[in-house]
Amino acid sequence: MTRYRKSATSGSRYSTPAGALRLRAELDELWRVLRPQVTRAVQEAAAQGDRSENAEYIYGKRQLREIDRRVRFLRQRLEGMIVVERPPDDRSRIFFGAWVQVEDEAGVATEFRIVGPDELDPARRYVSMDSPLARALMGKRVDDEVTIEVPGGTRAYTVVGIRYEEPVAS
């Protein structure tokens, strides 16, 4: 029996320029700042002697493994990433990077942006393009209706607006 396990799919490879920049900044911070600090701390802890009972050494080694794992993941993501730098030619339809305003059955309007899976951020109203709602909305136009399955049943939404620029600060 082998120990090899194929890694889970990590979603679509698309990203906005800002999302790719954030991933590169995180990689740079981990590799150039955090990892050298932790390495020095591990070396200092190792110099104290008995490593088997040295909590600082054990914790530092664990931190290094976590940093290295994240660095590998970020390098792989950035290597195959497709950065979408300009909006599509047909701005009347919903595609990657669109700000979409939908209205539910009760008339409540919600606006969010469709971004890559690495950029998911509910506080900024960023929704992954791999989410059920975003997949259902792709290619739709204003006044189109979509129905999606949610844990509580089904929900219907009507597209009321599509735009491809940044939101106005409120």
Q: Would you write up a description of this structure?
A:
Helix 1 runs antiparallel to helix 2 (55-79). The mean pLDDT is 89. This protein has helices at 17-46, 55-79, 132-137; strands at residues 14-15, 82-83, 99-104, 109-115, 126-128, 145-150, 153-163. It is 36% helix and 22% strand. The chain has 170 residues and is an alpha/beta fold. The relative contact order is 0.15. The chain has 2 domains: 14-83, Helix Hairpins (Orthogonal Bundle); 99-163, Transcription elongation factor, GreA/GreB, C-terminal domain (Chitinase A, domain 3), CATH 3.10.50.
What value does the Rg take, in angstroms? 22 Å
Helicity range: 25-40%
The helix/strand series, from N terminus to C terminus, equals EHHEEEEHEE
CATH fold-level name of the largest domain: Helix Hairpins
Q: Helix/strand-derived class?
A: alpha/beta
Strand order of the largest sheet: 5-4-3-7-6
Number of domains: 2
Q: Count of helices?
A: 3
Q: Report the CATH C-level class of the largest domain.
A: Mainly Alpha
Low-pLDDT parts are none
CATH superfamily of the largest domain: Transcription elongation factor, GreA/GreB, N-terminal domain
Strand content: 15-25%
- Overall shape: it is elongated
According to DSSP, the number of beta strands is 7
| CATH second-level architecture of the largest domain | Orthogonal Bundle
Distance between the termini: 57 Å
Major pleated sheet: 5 strands, mixed
